[in-house]
Amino acid sequence: YHTLRFILGDQLNAAHSWFDQCDPGILYVIAELHPEATYVKHHVQKLCAFFLAMETFANELEAAGHQVCYLTLDDTKGHSLESLILAIAVRENIQTIDLQRPDEHRVLMQYKHLFEHAEQTVTLFETEHFLLPFDDIPQYFKPQHSVRMENFYRKMRQRFNILMNTDKEPEGGKWNYDSDNRNKLKAQDLNNIPAPLCFQYEVQYLLERLARHNITTIGKADNILLWPTSQQDALDLLAYFCEHLLPNFGRFQDAMTSKTPHSWSLYHSRLSFALNAKLISPMQVIDSAIARYQENDAIDIAQIEGFVRQILGWREYVRGMYWINMPDYQEQNALDAHRDLPSYFWHGDTKMHCLADAIGQSLDYAYAHHIQRLMVTGNFCLLTDIEPSQVDEWYLGIYVDALEWVELPNTRGMSQFADGGWIASKPYAASGSYIQKMSDYCTSCHYKVKDKVGEQACPLNSLYWRFMVKHRERLAKNPRIGMIYGNWDKQSDAQKHAVLQRAEWCVDNIEQL
Ligand code: FAD
Fold first, then answer.
1. FRET pair for 96, CA 20 to 30 Å: which of 44, 51, 438, 442?
2. Which of 107, 47, 124, 113 is nearest to 86 (CA)?
3. Site residues for ligand 1, CB cut-off 6 Å
4. What is the pLDDT of residues 234-280, one digit of tens each?
5. Which domains does the chain have, with CATH numbers?
6. How many CB atoms lie within 10 A of CB 395?
7. What integer is the mean pLDDT of 46-63?
8. Model ipTM value
């Protein structure tokens, strides 16, 4: 071989120009690595999904005529990413190493090491996945500065001419239909929720491999994996989404329920793993969804715009915010939060129904939808001052789609406000009334959502006010929040005292909630 091309587990892009031609002198290497399996404690289904997708990709490349070396944990024991690449290059007497740009800063640092120390010629190629070219990120983002997603998203709509009419105006006349995306699921809606499309891969051999290598994991180990692990699976999942879920995607995007067998998935696409592993490209997803919208009258603009905003907007935006602010981002702790994450995040055993449900399904499926991540688990950590690095670690481990470039800005930035507002214009802090508005969790909860004080009062109610009072100096200036303090100030001193006392009890006894 003259060239070694290394493919990371999240670089499974069959449409990459590397694969346009077969060259018997190029050796493609895909490897399960111990450090990758252990840099955080991953959900067992996440590891199985990545390993199976990698193995499938290697088989498909080989079938297409490429030279491929797939290495399992058994083959790579004792190796780091760099040492493995170098060892193969030396063994095969290869002079050229090609890499694709990693999405995670952590991996880029390891590649930098290779650039500096390898005797071979090392070249970095783009992944050809994201819509915004990496080198354009500084045109849209400034380090340590707030950049609003909405402004970025409008520029992306214009740049890529997506959902724009011929007069260069947004289709439908509005940029954003967010206000139409806030329906609660009513009793009559619950029976109509489609079952999620789940795949059925036998992964007992992977579970055994993980056990053999003492890789500790979290979550429910199931020998049947239901996540997509090939390009074809991703396309099937996308087609299923466009057909059955897109017609109601925007409408129920923020809704939560525990009352149906499909509560865990609702109208969400569950495409994040396929996208992040690059089994499918964001443009493919957007194009298919828009094509379906154009041919199906049952899909209105609020549904398609809501979906496109997530992929063209949020997904590209958090990547920009990540890269412009790393490595500083991972050190931010603007609200000075230092409490330990309570143990129920690892088993779901809490009396708070919303939290138990969101954590429980995360452990069962390695998945929760956005509002559960942001407004249930995220909100709870925000209100109880959990150390952002512990929050990051939990999110990075538990979700099948969790890779640092997308996890960190969402967790530390959007959800924990630890960046002091680079991403969010105000903290996503909420009391029990938000949960009650968007879900049916409160009706069967141990706690009373209407109460602020007393042993059975929903902890979120007093914790919310504790948070607002604690950060008053920072938040009162914010025109989007200032008036909330009026409600607080109207209360008698005795009422305020009782609420804050209940909140202190909750944080002091956080393990008992
Ligand atoms: P859908 O609801 O069907 O949305 C479609 C797609 O839009 C998603 O697949 C995703 O690619 C994209 N998207 C939507 N929201 C966001 C967002 N805020 N940021 C980036 N992309 C978005 N997403 C991850 O992919 N990996 C993570 O590790 C991750 N961690 C998160 C942590 C927190 C605290 C929060 C609040 C959000 C996080 N998200 C993360 C974003 C979002 O919650 C998930 O992308 C989404 O829930 C995945 O499910 P889905 O594919 O069914 O999404």
1. 51
2. 113
3. 268-272, 275-276, 310-311, 314-315, 318, 369-370, 373-374, 378, 395, 399, 401-402, 406-407, 410-411, 414-415
4. 999 999 999 999 999 999 999 999 999 999 999 999 999 999 999 99
5. 3-125 (3.40.50.620), 134-325 (1.25.40.80), 343-512 (1.10.579.10)
6. 26
7. 98
8. 0.99
